[in-house]
């Protein structure tokens, strides 16, 4: 379940993912029993699987890790990898907003 974002932010992300011309990001608070120490996740998505796979390869992510949920293909970024990728991509506002560092 996602917390800390509003409906407009989610809908804007979904529209950008569907457009498919680039990888787009959304970070939110997150609770998952498999990862009790992880409090946030960043979804990096694009409906263009070639774009998403190439982007993932540049960051050491395997195409098998892509989630194909509800028509919004994305990687889930968590932990140190989440911060590393957000920094490399220059998405510092989400690092600050969710206090990832």
Query: How many domains in all?
Result: 1
Query: Which shape, going by the Cα principal axes?
Result: globular
Query: Strand-residue fraction?
Result: 15-25%
- The number of helical segments is 4
Summarize this structure as a short list of keywords or feature phrases:
101 residues; alpha+beta; 4-stranded antiparallel beta sheet; 4 strands
Structure description:
- The protein is globular, with a radius of gyration of 13 Å.
- It has helices at 7-19, 49-58, 79-88, 92-97, and strands at 2-3, 24-30, 40-45, 74-77.
- The protein has one domain.
- The chain has 4 helices and 4 strands; from the N terminus they run βαββαβαα.
- The protein has a 4-stranded antiparallel β-sheet.
- The protein has 101 residues and is α+β, with helices and mostly antiparallel strands.
Topology, please?
Layout: E1 2-3, H1 7-19, E2 24-30, E3 40-45, H2 49-58, E4 74-77, H3 79-88, H4 92-97
Antiparallel strand pairs: 1-2, 2-3, 3-4
Quick summary:
39% of the residues lie in helices and 19% in strands. It is of the alpha+beta class and 101 residues long.
